[in-house]
Amino acid sequence: MMEQYIEIKAANPDLLLFYRMGDFYELFFDDAVQAARALGITLTKRGQHMGRDIAMCGVPVHAADDYLEKLIALGFRVAVCEQTEDPAEARKRGGKSVVRRDVVRLVTPGTLTEEKLLSPSEPNYLMALARVRGENGYALAWIDISTGVFRIVETAADRLLADVLRVDPREMIVSDTLFADPELRGVFDVLGRTAVPQPAPFFDSATAEHRLARFFSVATLDGFGRFSRAEMAAAAAAIAYVEKTQIDARPPIARPERDAAGTSLFIDPATRANLELLRTLSGERRGSLLTAIDRTVTGGGARLLSERLMAPLTDPASIDIRLDSLAWLMRDSARIDRLQDTLKTLPDMPRALSRLALGRGGPRDLAAISAGMAAAVRLTGHFEGGEPPAELTRALDAIHALPAELAGRLSATLADEVALLARDGGFVRDGHDGELDEMRALRDESRRVVAGLQARYAEETGVRSLKIRHNNVLGYFIEVTSANAGALMEGEAAKARFIHRQTTANAMRFTTNELADLETRIANAAERALSIELSIFSELVAAVTEEAGAIHAAAAALAVVDVSAGLATLAEEQGYCRPTVDGSHALAIVAGRHPVVEQVLRRNAEGPFVANDCDLSGQGEDGGALWLLTGPNMGGKSTFLRQNALIAIMAQMGSFVPAGSAHIGVVDRLFSRVGASDDLARGRSTFMVEMVETAAILNQAGPRSLVILDEIGRGTATFDGLSIAWAAVEHLHEVNRCRGLFATHFHELTALSEKLHRLVNATMRVKEWDGEVIFLHEVAPGVSDGSYGIQVARLAGLPDVVIERARAVLAQLEEGERQNPAQALVDDLPLFAVQNRAERKAKAEPAGEGHLASLLETLDPDDMTPRQALEAVYALKKAQARP
Fold first, then answer.
1. DSSP code of 200?
2. How far apart are CA 17 and CA 105, in angstroms?
3. Are residues 597 and 737 in the same domain?
4. Is 225 annotated as a binding residue?
5. Among 10, 173, 310, 610, which residue is least crowded by beta carbons within 10 Å?
6. 511 CB contacts (<8 Å, ≥6 apart)?
């Protein structure tokens, strides 16, 4: 047995091997040590192998899913090894033969299908990353085998991690050669155990088309669209991994769809984390934007909402189509209530379908398909009496395309209450199959059947005392007294019918062919009844999987209805408005609110959220406005920054937004640098992380981008930080020309508004009353008159002596600042707005007498670097040499 185990383990070295032995999955050697530690179960020893104690632990087969859930959550991958023959067959072979076993499935984070192992509201993506030798770009393909989704996208090195995190895969496979590429080390460090190396042949672009065509049973992929070599390699690798993990089973995966480049809002990894779209910075779902806006009532709807939030659109027409659905539903609140009441009864059809196709499903999955189809039909009735907009009309068309014959067959066949496992039987409705009903009657009511036959024999023979009895030797037999035996033995008909079995002192025993057949059928009734049910189960599974395409399409349509109804409910409940989204450079928000903070305040009865306006609209190619936001700590700057970014995301995902009104010119890239964090594992301090993220923004933002920056430069010395912040503001204004919000405590930066015409000064208003600071959380034009840091420190509980000393130091520092105002720097420091005066005047001045003197007047030695001074000397010598 151990030889068999070691042979199977050698073929699966990187996985824990669940080795089936009777009613347990056993683990041995190092697998047992790891599993026992991870699961908190007992580790034992049994025997030796090559002089080494055999460590051993096990889990019951019936509870295996619970243990698998824990192992998968901890990042393990498991090979499930089952017995593949009847133990009786092994005994026939004699000798030391053991029951044949083989791996029937590899359980990995990205290939789960079991209901217990999956979150209903989250997709479970397996992703493949590919790069073709000689090409610069990359491709990503991702599959959710639990729902059949299959998508592909091309990407580049500078946005690779952002595209991966947008999909948020549970597992990503990459060729072992690419996994060792030092250029991608940073990506794999972020992904951690999610990224798994696989053999390079999986990613072979030369065989990719053949692999995909074979999987989808087509001669050519021409009907799928045109894909690049890298896209084909990624798609084929994902399919190869699915085939490897599912062994002989084939999940119902849809044909691959391409995500066209530029169709979704680019959100870099730091921004996704800072804005807490799916999870908070602490990793929790509670407190995220998704949790705040989710009013869906089905698993499919929750997954679609998450997908839309992670990939907002950039096409105004497509966004308007989604917004039209919400607006139409909001005209009739009662309709929304009816829709959601019906949707609440909707099972997760795609995941049930996947389990059935993979051979892991049971009667409840068939019942889920049946109930889902019935609920879908009921739901269409709620759209009567109106003309739904385009998106909802398409959804209704997909629902109407569900095969009515299959729905009727499932409803007529399945019982109202069904067992979890097919082997338990009892899931076929009474009256559906005559033979099955008879077998059930024999199995469940054998005494009543035998009594009925006894009464008939007694009536036919006239022997009222006739009995049908049973013992372990004869089985069932007819017994009459010796005096009455003649009625069963006289006449040719009686002799032919009643067969003598035994004579006792006081009675005679007979049988009939009918009784013998009944005995056999009673003995085999339970087995036969289960066999009939399993045959019906197989037929229903085949019928359901044959209609997988229509079921998937209808399930997707139902998810669209759920998301639309949920967002309409959210808009009514929270008082959201419909945004105007177009191709302009506008970003004008009136009375905007933070969608998460507002709900927290309302839930905790802490008063209303203070709404604020924000107008970053730009004109044509001139670029958008850049707001320089000053104000005290605790004044609400970070909240104001984030809320405007979240409003843009919500608008472009197709949701109403928390504002009085909103006009959003499509944002193509969203960047955020908010908060402080370090990356000690890679040797990055808090300030280094801040500079890396700021560099990414300044190098990538364009005129259609939206940038929010908070406290750039505060992580280093004052003058260093001020200089960096100063230069960053100029770069955003003159080079990136984006719409942006720049919050800072460097009040010196406000002087830049005199030279940078799109820079607007704004501040968070406060009031002082009897020595107390009152934060109004209102944004107003102008400049803050201080940071109020000492007041905040006092509120935090610093000792009074520290507060008083801080006030004294601050007074001295402010006096020094007044003697050296930053205003004097404005005329000289803007690097991108003001050209070097010497260079400009040298071009403007005509050659001739007085030229040298005028050139000298343009020079300011106190404001020149050594290199600039040297260049000025050369310029003067050149001017002196002129005739």
1. G
2. 11
3. yes
4. no
5. 10
6. 474, 476, 477, 478, 498, 499, 501
Is-contact 198 174, C-beta < 8 A? yes
637 is in an annotated binding site: yes
Give the Cα-Cα-Cα angle 288, 153, 223 (nearest 5 degrees).
130
CATH code where residue 385 lies? 1.10.1420.10
Starting at the edge strand found earlier in the chain, the sheet holding 661-665 runs 580-582, 661-665, 587-592, 612-615
Gap between the Cα atoms of 181 and 173, Å rounded? 14
Same domain, 671 and 775: yes
- Give the per-residue pLDDT at 580: 97
* Element spanning 710, H or E: strand 706-710
775 and 649 within one domain: yes
Q: Is residue 408 part of a domain?
A: no
Shared domain for 570 and 584, answered yes or no, is no
How many distinct structural domains can be found in the chain? 6
773, β-bridge pairs = 768
3-state secondary structure 70-130: HHHHCCCCEEEEEECCCHHHHHHHCCCCCCCEEEEEEECHHHCCCHHHCCCCCCCCEEEEE
Instruction: Quickly count: other Cβ atoms within 10 Å of residue 493's Cβ.
Output: 8
Sign of the torsion formed by the C-alpha atoms of 261, 264, 265 and 270: negative
Residue of 142, 195, 150, 138 lying closest to 167 (CA atoms): 142
- Provide the 3-class DSSP secondary structure of residue 551: helix
Mapped onto helix, strand or coil, the DSSP state of residue 483 is helix
Our measurement of the distance from residue 591's CA atom to the centroid of its chain's CA atoms, rounded to an integer in Å, reads 32
Domain of residue 631: give its range.
580-825
Q: Which residue has the tokens 């919050």?
A: 743
pLDDT confidence of residue 850: 60
- Assigned domain for 114 exists: no
Cα angle 236, 242, 248 (rounded to 5 degrees) comes to 115
> What burial class does residue 280 get, using C-beta atoms within 10 Å of its C-beta: 0-12 exposed, 13-18 middle, 19+ buried?
middle
* Residue-level pLDDT at 723: 85
Q: Which tokens belong to 240?
A: 């190869």
The pLDDT value recorded for residue 469 is 92
**Residues linked to residue 774 through DSSP beta bridges, in sequence order:** 767
Check: CB of residue 629 under 8 Å from CB of residue 637: yes
Which strands sit side by side in the sheet containing 126-130, from one edge to the other?
A: 195-198, 171-175, 126-130, 138-144, 149-155, 257-258
Measured CA to CA, the distance from residue 657 to residue 593 in angstroms comes to 9
Task: Compute the distance between CA of residue 212 and CA of residue 240 in angstroms, rounded to an integer.
Answer: 9
Tokens of 820: 């050296």
- Angstrom distance (rounded) from CA 414 to CA 346: 17
Closest CA to 236 of 259, 199, 205, 197: 205
Does residue 509 contact residue 501 with C-beta atoms inside 8 Å?
yes
Strand, coil or helix: what is 545?
Answer: helix
State which amino acid sits at residue 839: E
875 φ, ψ (degrees, to nearest 5): -65, -40
Cross-sheet strand order for the sheet of 626-630: 266-267, 669-673, 706-710, 739-743, 626-630, 759-769, 772-781
Q: Report the chain (883 residues): mean pLDDT per 10 consecutive residues.
A: 90 92 92 94 86 89 90 91 79 73 92 89 95 84 95 91 92 93 89 91 92 92 88 95 90 90 87 90 90 96 96 96 97 95 96 93 95 95 90 96 95 92 91 91 85 92 92 89 89 86 91 91 87 95 95 96 97 97 95 95 88 87 86 83 96 97 96 65 65 87 92 74 87 92 87 89 82 79 75 76 78 64 54 42 48 70 73 75 59
Residues 487 and 491: their CA atoms lie apart, in Å, by: 8
Residues 6 or more apart whose CB falls under 8 angstroms from that of 843 comprise: none
Same domain, 94 and 131: no
Residue among 280, 189, 272 nearest 683 (CA): 189
* Helix, strand, coil fractions of the chain, as percent rounded to 5: 50, 20, 30
